[in-house]
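REVIEWER CHECKLIST
Item 1: Sequence provided? yes
Item 2: Single chain? yes
Item 3: Sequence as submitted:
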Amino acid sequence: MTTEADIISLHNNGMSIKKISRECVVSRNTVRKYLRRYENILEQMTKETNESKLLDLQSKLVGKPVKAYSNKKKTALTDEVQKRIMGYLEIDANRDLLLGSNKQRLTSTKIYKELIQEGYIISESTVRTYVRSIRKLQKEVYIRREFDYGQRLEYDFHMVKLQVDGKVIRYHQVTITCPKSGYIWIKLYPNENKQTVIRSLVEFIDHCGGVFKEFVFDNMSTVVNSSSYGKEKKIYTDDIVKLSLYYRFRIVTCNVRAGWEKGSVENGGKNIRNELFSLDYIFNNELEVSEYVSREVEKFNNKRIDEFEKEKTVLIHKPAMKYQLCDYIIRKVNSYSCVYQDSNYYSVPDKYTGSCLSLQVYQNEIVIYDKNKIVARHIKKDGVKEYSIKIEHFENTFRKKPGALRDSLALKSNQDLHTIFNVDYSMDSKRFIEDLFNNNLRKNNVIDNTNTDDLDLITKLSKSQLDTYTTMFK
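Item 4: Structure as written out by the authors:
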């Protein structure tokens, strides 16, 4: 616009087109184009009497030049081609009606390839432009919402990758936000299953000291039963229903592909993830990660803490006893004397191989029963295909097969026992087995009752101390 104003000003002062071209460093054709446009608009203004049209001409006179688009007829995008493209878009719409929400959308590239196979001569850019014009929607409008204190919390997962102890580990960041106060709570978990959902919600309720009226989720499989997808009425999973009954909150879920309905957690989770982990992503161990997250989340919420304290005063009182998630499951013991649960394996005494045992699966522990008798307890594993092995469960097998001890996972799973074996018993597996599984320990019910306190003590002793300890019972 500055160049155009200079050209018109110089021309009004009597300068020739050639001199203007040199002065403004533009071609003479450009000078002529600007002058012609200016004179045409002035001429129209002298003839026009309608005030609104005069204002429009005035805007054109002082505004930026508008590019003139060609009205050349498109030879490739014929009516026939347009009908074929519309046919493919109808297939897209019909599939959505049949299947409900899905991600199998026809792309412009796919439509272009189909047209080429049908013999049409057209460029991919032409197809893309036309499809975009058909699919073009009105720009989305958001409705601002206002909530009361203690009314609502929003829940979601976000992915985080960190380097811990030299290994790249993928974490699932649980994000819980309070839209009224703006408070954000996060914690990193190794997976995204129902135990994680329940555990994180219980921890947050303890953190708050009370319960919000509404818990808002998206349609995650840990909350919404897959059999109700696409239906008007949603069926929630047993675990989330039990939790809602215990803590007296209302379950709310978003519509499919409607993340804006819980925009607080969508945006808050991304913001706090970028704030915490965009620069700091290398840690020495898990404890360092946990301490860092706790410390930085507290800093992040400094501006919101006063509002959050107000919100805490109106929360529903939580029960005195902390909720314990427990599943009751029947599992068959495999040939390695282990039961399979949540992608991991847990050992039981080898006399139960081939039997069916009952499991009580808690958030952090698995208790295994034979009828009413506890036969094993294990700390719950969070990984995949991991083993929790207790060597005392394999006494009978090791007495029959002492040669299997050296390379057994049962021995290697206990680092202290493994060290003792390598240092003092590497040439005599039978003696190690006798020292470990001696009659005196059996008389004191150490092994049968799965009380491993004495065995844990043994693993911390040297060979001489071990001999002394086993002799104490004689």
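Item 5: Key structural point noted by reviewer: The CA atoms of residues 350 and 396 lie 7 Å apart.
Item 6: Recommendation: ____
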